[in-house]
From TrEMBL:
Domain of life: Bacteria
Species annotation: Paraburkholderia tagetis
Statement: the UniProt record of this protein carries the keyword Transmembrane helix: yes
Listed name of the protein: DUF4010 domain-containing protein
Keyword check for Transmembrane helix: yes
Annotated TM spans: 6-23, 43-73, 93-122, 134-153, 173-194, 201-220, 232-255, 262-280, 300-317, 324-346, 358-380, 387-407
C-alpha cells in the first residue's frame, strides 16, 4: 500500500472532507441568482484554508479566519448579486496563506498551490459530475464507507480477542473496509471514465490492495449486470495479475535471490492482457451504472470468512507443529499472498530458512490464494465470470509449480 508523507496527511484529509461535504451540498444548490452561496469548490477550498491556517499560525489564525469566513458568508447571504458564490473570497485568503506557507515549506506550498488551481479550474466537470452522475445512494454509500473506516475501525481492539490469539477484529474490519473501498472505486471510476476504461483501471488498482476483495466486488456486479460480464471479468483478471506483480516486488525488496524461483508467475500477464483486449472489443452500455457503490453485506460476509480462516490457521499450526509453516502459508494465502511471502522471504534473508525451502511455502500461499479467488468468483459471479478468471489462475499455478518441480 502507498503511504502519504506525514507532513502532507493533514491536507489530504482536509481535501477529502471538503470534497465529501461539498459534494453533498452541491447537490442541494439551486441555479442562477438564487442558488446557495457554497458548493463543492467552496467547501474544498475552505477545508484547505483551515489546514493551511493551522500549519501557518495555529489556533489563533484559524479562529480569526473562521470569523472572517463567517462574515463573508453573511455578506454573501445578504447582498443582492447575480453570483453569490464565495469561491473567489476563500481562494484569495488561501492564496495569501500559501504565500506565508512558502516561507516555512516551499515544496508543500507549491504542491498545494497546484492543487488549489486544479480545484478552481475544474468547476464545470465537478459541478456536472456531482449534480448529474453522483446519485443520493452513492453519497450514502460513501458516508457508510467513511464511517466504517474513520469511526468504527479506530474503535476496534488491535489485539487478539479470542483465547487462541487468532482473531484480530481490527484486521478483520480493515479487510471489510478494503472490500467496500474497492467496490466504491470501481463504481466511481465507471462514472468518471465510462465502463470501458473505468472498470479495468479499478480492477488493476484494486488488485494491488486485495485481489480477492476486487474479484468479489466485480463478481457481485457481474451478477447484477450479466451483459457487462466480459468487462467485469477482465477487471477481475487484471486484479489477479496484480498479485504476482506485487509478489515479485515484495520478494525483491525483502530477499532478491528468491525472486528467480517465483518469476514464472509473471506469465499470467499474458492472459490478463489477452482478456482485457478481448473485452475491449465487445460493445458495452457506457452510460449505465447499475448497483450500489458499496455492498455492506458482501463486505461483512468476507470479513466473517476471514475470521474463520484466521482461527483455523492458528489451531492447525499448533496441532501439526513442523508442518505449521506450510499450513500457515496456505491459510494466510487464502486472504493475502503478499504478507505471507514477505514473512517467509524475511526468514530466508535472515538465514533462518534455506532459499530452497523458502520457495515452497510461498508457492503454497500463492496456490491457496488462487483457489480462494476461484471460489470467490464462483460464489459472487456467474458461470461466465468464473470461467474467464479460472484459466489465468491455472496459468499462474502451472508456471510456478512447473518451475519448482524442474528446479527440485
Amino acid at each position: 500500500m502507498f503511504l502519504v508523507n506525514a507532513a502532507y496527511m493533514p491536507f489530504v484529509v482536509a481535501l477529502g472532507v471538503g470534497l465529501l461535504v461539498g459534494a453533498e451540498r452541491e447537490r442541494r444548490k439551486s441555479e442562477g441568482a438564487t442558488r446557495a452561496a457554497a458548493g463543492i469548490r467552496t467547501f474544498t477550498v475552505a477545508a484547505l484554508l483551515g489546514a493551511i491556517a493551522m500549519r501557518v499560525g495555529g489556533v489563533i489564525l484559524a479562529a480569526t479566519l473562521t470569523l472572517a469566513l463567517t462574515a463573508l458568508a453573511t455578506a454573501a447571504y445578504l447582498r443582492p448579486h447575480d453570483d453569490p458564490g464565495l469561491t473567489t473570497e476563500t481562494s484569495m485568503i488561501a492564496t495569501l496563506l500559501l504565500g506565508a506557507l512558502a516561507v516555512l515549506d516551499a515544496p508543500l506550498a507549491a504542491a498545494l498551490g497546484v492543487l488549489l488551481t486544479i480545484v478552481l479550474a475544474a468547476r464545470s466537470p465537478l459541478h456536472r459530475f456531482v449534480t448529474t452522475r453522483l446519485g443520493q445512494d452513492a453519497i450514502i454509500d460513501l458516508l457508510t464507507l467513511a464511517a466504517s473506516a474513520l469511526i468504527i475501525l479506530p474503535m476496534l481492539p488491535s489485539h487478539p480477542v479470542d483465547p487462541y490469539g487468532a482473531i484480530n477484529l481490527q484486521t478483520v474490519w480493515r479487510f471489510a473496509v478494503l472490500v467496500m473501498a474497492i467496490s466504491a472505486i470501481g463504481h466511481i471510476a465507471q462514472l468518471v471514465f465510462g465502463a470501458r476504461i473505468g472498470l479495468p483501471f479499478a480492477g488493476l488498482l484494486g488488485g494491488f490492495v486485495s485481489s480477492v476483495a476486487t474479484i468479489a466486488a466485480m463478481g457481485r456486479r457481474a451478477a447484477l449486470t450479466p451483459a457487462d460480464c466480459p468487462q467485469l471479468a477482465a477487471a477481475a483478471v487484471l486484479s489477479s495479475v496484480a498479485t504476482p506483480v506485487q509478489l515479485a516486488l515484495v520478494v525483491s525488496v525483502v530477499y532478491e535471490p528468491l525472486l528467480r524461483r517465483l518469476a514464472p508467475a509473471l506469465g499470467a500477464l499474458a492472459w490478463g492482457l489477452f482478456v482485457a483486449w478481448r473485452a475491449a472489443r465487445k460493445p458495452m452500455q457506457e452510460e449505465l451504472v447499475v448497483g450500489r457503490a458499496v455492498d455492506l453485506k458482501a463486505a461483512l460476509l468476507l470479513a466473517a470468512t476471514l475470521m474463520v480462516l484466521m482461527l483455523m490457521g492458528t489451531l492447525l499450526a499448533r496441532w501439526l507443529g513442523k508442518t505449521g509453516l506450510l499450513i500457515a502459508a496456505g491459510l494466510g494465502g487464502l486472504v493475502d499472498t503478499h504478507s505471507a511471502a514477505a514473512s517467509i522471504a524475511a526468514l530466508a534473508a535472515q538465514s533462518l530458512l534455506a532459499q530452497s525451502d523458502a520457495a515452497l511455502p510461498i508457492i503454497v500461499a500463492l496456490t491457496a490464494n488462487s483457489i480462494m479467488k476461484c471460489c470467490v468468483a464462483v460464489a459472487f459471479g456467474k458461470r461466465a465470470f468464473a470461467l474467464t478468471l479460472i484459466p489465468g489462475q491455472a496459468l499462474i499455478l502451472a508456471c510456478v509449480w512447473g518451475a519448482w518441480l524442474l528446479a527440485s
